Structures are given as C-alpha cells and as structure tokens.
User: Fold Semaphorin-4B Semaphorin-C from Takifugu flavidus.
Amino acid sequence: MWTMNMAVLHLPVYTVLLVGYVQAGVADGDVTPRLTFSYNAKERTAKRFSASGVVNFTTLHLSNEDKTLYVGAREILFALNLTDISEVTLHRNQDESYILLTLTVAVHMGNSRQEEGRVQFQRQRPAGKRAADKDCFNYIKIFLRVNSTHLYVCGTYAFSPTCAYIKTDNFSLVKSDSGEVVTEDGRSRCPFNPEYKSTAIIADGELYAGTVSNFQGNEPIIYKSLSQGTSLKTENSLNWLQDPAFVGSAYIQESLPKGNEVGDDDKIYFFFSEVGKEFDFFDNTLVSRIARVCKGDLGGERVLQKKWTTFLKAQLLCSLPDDGFPFNIIQDMFVLTPSPEDWKNTVFYGVFTSQWYKGASGSSAVCSFTMDQVVEAFNGRYREVNRETQQWYTYNHPVPEPRPGMCITNEARKQDIPSSLRMPDKVLNFVKDHFLMDSVIRSSPLLLKRNAHYTQIAVHRVQTGSKVYHVLFVGTDDGRLHKAININGKMHIIEEMVLFRNSQPVLNIELDTEKGRLYISSFSELVEVPIANCTNYQSCGECVLSRDPYCAWDGSQCVDIRQTPPNKAWQQSIVEADTATICNKVLNPRFAKSPSIRTSACQPITIPANTFRVLPCKLRSNLAVRKWEFRKTPGHFHYPSPEGGLVVVGQADRQENYECWSVEEGFRQLLANYCVRGEARQESTTFTGRSHIPPISQEEFIILPGEARSPHMNTKTYWNELLVVCALLAFSLVVFSLFVVYRNRSHMKSMLKEGECPAIQQKKPRTVGKPVENLPLNGNAVTASVSDHKGYQALNDNYICSTPPCSSPDNSKSFSESEKRPLNLKESHVEISPTCPRPRVRLGSMIKDSIV
Ligand SMILES: *[C@@H]1O[C@H](CO)[C@@H](O)[C@H](O)[C@H]1NC(C)=O
Ligand SMILES: *[C@@H]1O[C@H](CO)[C@@H](O)[C@H](O)[C@H]1NC(C)=O
Ligand SMILES: *[C@@H]1O[C@H](CO)[C@@H](O)[C@H](O)[C@H]1NC(C)=O
Ligand SMILES: *[C@@H]1O[C@H](CO)[C@@H](O)[C@H](O)[C@H]1NC(C)=O
Ligand SMILES: *[C@@H]1O[C@H](CO)[C@@H](O)[C@H](O)[C@H]1NC(C)=O
Assistant:
C-alpha cells in the first residue's frame, strides 16, 4: 500500500528515481552481474596460495592423475596438493630452495649458485641489460607434462631460454650421471622476453610452441621439436606470421574414431593476433587468427625441407552484428571438446578486445566459433599475395592435388603419398604462398561487457538432466571473475567475484571439472574457488532466478547437483527462470518455508518522535528492484536514502509498519520488515531520549536541527514554507534570465548566424573530459590496447597515436562527424591526422571489398 499523503513532493520523486534507475540499466545495453562478491566475501570463500618474495604466477598446469597443481612463477616451481592448495608452509632450507612441507620440493631454477650443476644464472646476459633488471629473472613460461613420469619446464633464464625435465614422483630436476641438471636450449620453445605472449602444448610426447626464436624478438615461429631427430618450423622468409602475439594452442584428435574412412590426421591449432597484412594499406590493422598444422607433418623432401607443409591460417572475426564494430584482438581461447571422439562438436570460445574504443573505457567480447565453421574455412578458397604490390586477392584458379595444406588422408595414401615427404613439389610450392584462407570465420559476441577488459576464459560443459549448458568463467585485467551463461542468445552473468586483494590481472584459469573448482593466478596470488555455492541462494526464488546450472531447488533448499545424487524433486528453470511454477508457495513468502520468514516478523524500532531514522534494506541481487510498502497515515514523512534505505520520521505514540520487498522478474521477496514507534518526549529530554533506542549498528540516526528544539513544529508547515521559498527562488531566477536574454539579444543573434563552428567547439570539452560512446574508431585508440598485442614490432612501432584531446581543428571535425554517424563502418575511409602521420582507416564491415 502506497501512502498518498506526503505524495505531493516525495512520492513522485521516488517513483521517478526508481523508474529512472531501471531504464538506465536497460538503455545501457550492458550486462549487469546478478550478484557481486567483494574480495574474500564469506558467501564465496576462496582458498589462497602465495609465498613471500614469489611473484608472477605465469603458468599453471593441473594434473588430475597426480592430484597436483603445478605452478610456475618467477624463479620457482611449485607442486601443490589439490586437497588444499593453501595449506602449505614454505621453508627456506640452506641451499635457498623452497621446501613445501605437505608434499614436495619446489624447484628453484636460476639464481642459486650454491646448487650444484645449475647453469650459471648470468650466462649470456645481453649487452645493455642491467644486472638488476627485472627481466633478467627466470620467468617460467612452459610447464607441461611429457609423459606419465616426467614434466617439461622452460624459463626465460635471463634472456637465454632454457628447458629442463622434472621427475614427478619426487619433483626433482632430472640430473645426468655426473649429477648435473640436464638442460636443453629453450630457443624456439620459450621466448627471450618474459613479456612476450607465447604458447606451447605437448601432444603425443612432442612439444609444439608458438613463440619467437631470436633475442630481438622479430622472428616469430611455430616450432615442433621432434622427440628424436629434426624439428619443424614455419618459413620465416615467406612471412607466414606477421608479428604475432600467441594466446593459446589446442590439440584435436581428428584421426578419431579409429578406422574411419577419411583417415585424417590429428591437428594442432594455434590462436594469436597479428598484423593483418591483407589490410596492408590500412596500416597496422591487427587481426585474430586460427592457424593449424598436422601432427604427422614431416616437412618436404626438396621443397619446404624441415618446414611445415601443412601450415594454414584463417581470420577469426568477432564483431557486432549491427554496426560491425570489430573486436579484433584475441586475448585467450578455450577449446571445448565434448570428448576426443566427438571432436566435430568442438566449440572455440575466445575473448576479444578491440584496437579501437567503443564506450568510455573499452569493452570486451566473448565470441564462439564452431568446428564446422573452422573446417569450412580451411576447406575453402585460398588467398594469394601479389608480391609486387603486396596486395591480397582471392585465388580463383584450380588448385593442385592433393589439396595443399591438408593432412595425409586415406585419399592421399591411395595416390601413394604416405607422408608429407612424398608430397608433389607443385603442391608444396603452392602452399608456400597460399597459407591464408580467403573466408573469414565470423561470429558476433555472446557476451559484450563494457568497462571490462577480459584476459582469460574457461568454459565448463554442464549436463543437467537432458540439457547441456556451457558455463563461461571469464577473468578481467583487474582481478574479477565473471561466471556467465548464454540463454537464448542473451547473456546472463550469474555472479562476479573480486579474486585478489589488489587489482591485478587474471593470468591463468585452470578448471578442474572433476572437483568443480577453478584455480586462478595473478602476479602475486593464486586462488582456488568452487564453481558454485548453491547454499547462498537462500530461497526458492533466488535459486531459480540465479539461473545457475549447478544448482537446483529440491522443494526445501537450493542444492548443488554435483554433490547430491540425482533426485526427481529437483527443479531448474535456467531459460525461463520460472519462479511462479517452481516456487508457487513462495509467492506469499510470509507463509513460505524459506529463510525470508525470519524477516517477516517485524523488527521493532523505537525512536524519539520527530527524529529521523534510516531503515536499511540490502538487495540480494543487482537485478532486483526494491519496493517499500507501508500504510498510509496522515502526517507521514519518509523519503528514500541514497543507499536504498528509507528515511522515516517517528510519529509521537504511533507505530508504523514498513516492509521492504525485492521484486525480480515478477518474484517478490520480503527483505526487511520494521515496526517504527515514535516515542513522545519532553523538550528538555530530547537528547537523553536517544539512550532508549535499541542499538542498530549500521543505521544512521538523524535529528533535524530545527526539529529537535521545537518538537511542536509540524513537518507539514515546514514543507509548505520550503515550497514557498522554492517558488520564489524559481520565479526570481526566471525573471533574471529573461532580463539577461533581453540585454544580450543582439549578441545572441550574431552567434546563431555564425553557424556550425561554435557548435563544434562546444562539443570539444565533452570528448576531452569524458570520452563518449561514439568516438570514431580511429579517434581514441589508447596505448592500453596496444599492449594487448605484445608482438615486438607492434610494441616498438608507435603506430597508434595517443590521441591528444582535440588539439587541432581537424580533429574536432572528425569527432563531430562521427557523432552524427556513430561508428558507421560501411563508410570506411582513410583519414590523415596531423598528430599521426600515417594514414589510418576506419575498419568496417566492407573491409573485404575495399582490399581488391
Ligand atoms: C556459501 O554460502 C553460505 C551462505 O552465504 C556461506 O555461509 C558459506 O560459507 C558459503 N560457502 C562457500 C564455500 O563459500
Ligand atoms: C595431499 O594431502 C592429503 C591430505 O593431507 C594426503 O592424504 C595426500 O596423500 C596428499 N597428496 C599427495 C599427492 O601427496
Ligand atoms: C618420459 O620422458 C623422459 C624424458 O624425455 C624420459 O627420460 C622417460 O624415459 C620417459 N618415460 C616414459 C615412461 O616414457
Ligand atoms: C628423485 O628420484 C631419483 C630416482 O628416481 C633420484 O635419482 C633423485 O636423487 C631423487 N631426487 C631427490 C631430490 O630425492
Ligand atoms: C611480473 O609481475 C609484475 C608485478 O609484480 C608485473 O609488473 C610484470 O609485468 C610481471 N611480468 C610478467 C612477465 O608476468
């Protein structure tokens, strides 16, 4: 029941505030996480691991066979017992290596000269590198399992990458008979510079790495080191890779199931962003790529000796469906394969950011691509470069047989080509120049988040009953985790958690599907969080509205479906969030068997008459709307507090009832119920009266200055006076402004005649102060997005001008233009700005057409 009394002023204001709030959420088009948990929130507890002096938890390798999490940090390796990663006490023993009491020795690579047989730390320190330079530490970049007994580890080792083997049973470095640690040259496997983005994967005992092979960092390479004999690599002179930043790799067993009629080979996929040379007159446009090689590739006999004969790449494009705005820089890729045999149903989930900015502080997108799309692109047309003009064209002529870049299949074997060594020269010569596929693998964002920079993703395939859901876990560069699910094409962020004490990027996410845990690392901390906490959904409505696939309502509580045996009583409604059917009893929660019953008995509050009190009401969901309900009585006074509470004033010897309800998708839940009683008192005891108030800790207690001394003064007269003053003030303001206009009428006229220029100038401060939504694509590229792509040339090439805030008239013109036509990508055009000498281009959906 809404009171009609004080309505004249407060009620409309309150309603407008509410409506305004709801509309802001919708119009923004952004996804609000339903729940938000602060660091170390008790509802979402995490186990933590950190060690003093240990930073840069750069690599994580989860081994369910060993029940161990292998962690590579700067200068040190850990093997953490999965039973409890946090219950580890570190001891420094005499030789400065770390001992983990519960399980194992953490191997301390580098810097410990006492350790016998260690390679000298300062070996080959590059000229010009200061000894204290932080880059001269040994950053672990590769930590993978080779076989059932050994792990392989590589570190940057002060710009001289080095690798070693570790025995898993006692977690010690493999030593030679003479007691020396067996090391291998890490070149072409591990980058020199710790900041370089590289990737590595071990498939069938062989290491495949995407990295750089020289100290300068300008020789990108995809490298396979055969267990015995020669290695394979990309051909550098042919520019197969253009300053790539690798974000991941995957091994997909496309030879399965055994004995199928295609007889294809297993493949290794690489994901990276690089300079898109096919857009070569759009200088330094970055593109995301998927590249692949075949496991059985042995290189060519005469042509492409010791080089890949199966290297092909295609563009991955994650762009907005409406205006084609591209999220062109891939940050991470998670490859979700239901089972090795079922590789055809693989889904590639990538997180992308943009080289350009749309929205005030950047946004990120999650896009997914299917295996069908990928196969289609690699089976489609090739592109060809004109070596003279350096322009790329679609290759429309017949291609040699067997199809260049394909793995050896039964078809090839029939033609007496059992391996790449027997591949005809004309096929290999073709592949040298036709490594880029013509079709672009497109997708539009599943999840688009403003003001978030996503860095990592993991995806869990959850089967609940007959339905399958893909739950996305996405990490941000400021240490948050989003758990999200796609419902009929719309994204729902189930929860957001702050993972680390300090804002630092999520570097790795490892998902333990068996135990239902996530291991997430950053610069200085490693956390373990359970994938869900169903206990925290305290009513049927919360359980259903959460749309959390891990949780189901069993009639009395929200249960974790992975921890209890399947039950017919379980009810879920992930798609519809149908609280009406599942929680029908709860529609009147006062009588429902739910924890909200606790608040349904009203909480008595006694305050001195004519004093104010804030009644708090904390929403349990960011998507819910708060509704206060109370009886209408004359002389009532109340208004909303900024935090969503209700400010009420005590009425002498009267009791008022205030209920705070949360409404979310039609589900109503009582959050708080107060009985406020005003206590009449003598003028002289105004202040001592306070001692009778039952202490309610977080609540404010306000006494209006005027009120306290004159309790007889009615609120009504107070407001009437205020109204009169306001009206008088407004009137005099209007009169004054009319007067000013009248005085300056001639000046105003001339200003209007001048036309556009003043208008443009007026817009300038807007773009300077708070960048608005519709900045031109090329207008506000900020260096942050450059560092996303950590290729060397990109880092050195200062191609993205830090945009000076509208320093020249030209600039301001381009700003205003784009405000009229926000991000109209169909009208791509080259623009030369005085501050950025190279021509830059609005990248648009028509980009393909403008190449030819
Ligand atoms: C789950 O939530 C409940 C209720 O908020 C809380 O008491 C419990 O500690 C949480 N459990 C975990 C593992 O976070
Ligand atoms: C991990 O810790 C548990 C409990 O402390 C212990 O039983 C188990 O053996 C440990 N695992 C390993 C691999 O050491
Ligand atoms: C595992 O790899 C290591 C290092 O290459 C090798 O010494 C060992 O024999 C291998 N073990 C097995 C069981 O293959
Ligand atoms: C680990 O085991 C190997 C043999 O399996 C042994 O040679 C080596 O000394 C052991 N290392 C440690 C640190 O115990
Ligand atoms: C190592 O951590 C520091 C912060 O502690 C960070 O600035 C640096 O970029 C990190 N380096 C790598 C290679 O992760």
Remarks:
- The CA atoms of residues 121 and 174 lie 18 Å apart.
- The radius of gyration is 33 Å.
- Residues 146-150, 165 surround 2-acetamido-2-deoxy-beta-D-glucopyranose (ligand 3) (CB under 6 Å).
